[in-house]
Amino acid sequence: MPIHDVGYRPWEQARHSSMARWAVITAAGMRLVWKNHWLRRMLILAWLPAAALGLAVFVYEQSFEHRELQQEMPFLLSLLSESDRAIATWALATTGSDEVLWRVVEDVSLMQASRNQDREQAEIKQTLIEILQDQKIEPGSQAAQGVARHHVWSLLLLTFFRYPQAVLMVLLVGMIAPPLISQDFRSRAFLLYFSRPITPLEYVWGKAIVIWGYLAAVTTLPALVMYVTGVLLSPSISVVLDTWDIPLRVLAASGVLLIPTTSLALFFSSLTTESRYAGFAWFAVWGLGWAAYANLEALDLGRRWSIVSLYHVLGHVQAWVFGLSTDLNAVTSSATLLLVVTIQPLIVLLARVAAPIRV
Amino acid sequence: MKHASSEQLSAIDAASTDRSRAGDRTDGQADRVVELHGIVKDYGRVCALRNVSMTIGHGVTGLLGPNGAGKTTLIKVLLGLVRISAGRGVVLGYDLTSSAQSIRQNVGYMPEDDCYIAGLTGVEMVQFAARLSGYPRTESLRRAHEILDFCGVEQERYREVDTYSTGMRQKVKFAQALVHDPPLLILDEPTAGLDPDERLALLHRISTLAHRTGKTILVSTHILPDVRAICDTVAILAQGEVRVVDSLERLSQPASPALHVRTSHDAAPLIRRLEAAGGQVTVNDDGSLQIMLGGADAARQIWRLAAETGVGLRSLVPSRNSLDQIFLDAVRGDGRADS
Fold this sequence. Notes:
The structure holds 2 protein chains of 2 kinds.
Chain A: H1 21-34, H2 37-63, H3 67-70, H4 73-77, H5 83-94, H6 98-115, H7 121-135, H8 142-162, H9 164-176, H10 178-186, H11 190-194, H12 200-218, H13 220-233, H14 238-243, H15 246-270, H16 275-298, H17 310-321, H18 328-358
Helix pairs in contact in A: 1-12, 2-8, 2-9, 2-13, 5-6, 5-7, 5-8, 6-7, 8-9, 8-15, 8-17, 9-12, 9-16, 10-15, 10-16, 12-13, 12-15, 13-15, 15-16, 15-17, 15-18, 17-18
Chain B: H1 6-25, E1 32-43, E2 46-57, E3 59-64, H2 71-78, E4 86-91, E5 94-95, H3 100-106, E6 107-110, H4 122-132, H5 137-150, H6 166-178, E7 184-188, H7 196-211, E8 216-220, H8 224-230, E9 233-238, E10 241-247, H9 248-252, E11 259-263, H10 268-276, E12 280-283, E13 289-292, H11 298-309, E14 313-318, H12 323-332
Parallel strand pairs in B: 3-8, 3-9, 6-7, 7-8
Antiparallel strand pairs in B: 1-2, 1-4, 4-5, 9-10, 11-13, 11-14, 12-13
Helix pairs in contact in B: 1-7, 1-8, 4-5, 4-6, 5-6, 10-11
């Protein structure tokens, strides 16, 4: 008999599949997070870099048809990460004559040298020459254009992931994640969760999806929207064939970003009942790592010790995912570190979540 | 501060006693909702439960015991939250060790601790509990509102739970335990932090749930008057062992028939005459007398002797063991393990 039979309707007993219970935790978590005004502002802000990126793709695609834009391309591309590669591939695609090609290389080298006094002009030139030789594609050909397009689009997206969105990710996760578990410990809400047919794994999964959802909204979604916009605004249909794998690379790069960061953030949240301590630990990991890397780079040890900075570790693996990294040693050590950063906190996290109910 | 009137408590008590008597008649046929056999739970060197065997049938069962007796561990065992070291058990027909999820699907649990989900309103929290139990969004919201009506939570349901008083949080905790209409309810200190009026109202709700909607309810509490008011059966744990499991009615009966007498004057002359007549008289702390006098007309004899000695009698009723005494005897090891 129902507890409170109101008479005008029966209590329906049909229940969902137990598979969907984590989704209930996620939905409640997302709703609670959404109440934060700052977070909503940040989400709007997060789409500005995507708009800039979309504009860059548009200009790049138009440069194949408009000569006046071609003159501006070296400068525009020099704003990207690994700009030497971007400019070299663009030059390959658009320049039929060696004379023009080498003039561009010369311009770029000067530009790079003026932007970064620490790097030798000769070194940059050598890098560009090697890239051009590696391509083995005739400059100005259709094939060169396809390779360049893929390269430039990948670089644009990598820049998007590595710079504006990485900073935003640190801020966003620092806002969302710390209270997710610590507040449940503080208010002893785990008793409400685990007296239901919920397992610790479902609980952690449900919480992780909250972070993934918001992170995907500022990284994966804008990147994919930017890709689709770029394809639609491109004057050439061949863009689809040249860049068909980029959405898959975006998803993979998102996975590289989302999984370790979520595991680490939830781990910090599970260690304390005070969410501010978890937040402090989160920002400390990124801030101290970045500062350590900057100091080591000043001593010319940055490349060897890049694993001290989680930010740079993520960058190495994401560059590899976009097909832009040839430094396999750095990628392997970075990927191993990310694996450790994912699995070890996850084990501790599950143990921490299960601990209060087993005592 | 308001105090519960003795009449109100007596009314719940009397209703419970009537049901208990009715329950006694069907003891033999009562369904066994919970059956535990030789349950052992140890945490390393600390043994929290030692060979616990008991059966819980329909109605309200009070789970009593001093601090550290193993009540909370037993509740966690029943919910399948902790793995038992030895023994076996069945809850609502599901095996304790292999069907913990199914058990939790069908059990409502109200924790003792102050627990809530920060940032949710009262109705959102109850709805959330229903959704965790597997109900769709709209059905969960309907149930949440109906259960909050039942629990006496009015417009406060739209406020965030963080801002609630202890009493309000107790009500919401009670509501979330009920929202999925479970056949078995486990309530851990349900009246803690409630004012006397709210306490009576909650006891009334528990009684209603058990006797009108057929729920099986296990109440873990330290408040013995609450147990007396609503429980049909009592289980007393001490040092991880079950010391007593029996109906409250049977436990209240003294080992040998006795009469409880209150006098209006000095009872010394009456005591002397009773002892001279072969009776055994014990003077209680409150001055009342516990009299054991052989023969079927013991009450008549007492009236006569009182009249002869000029001692006025204010009350003369069959003596019953007090729950306090039952509890103390059980904890000290004088209790009888029964089922």
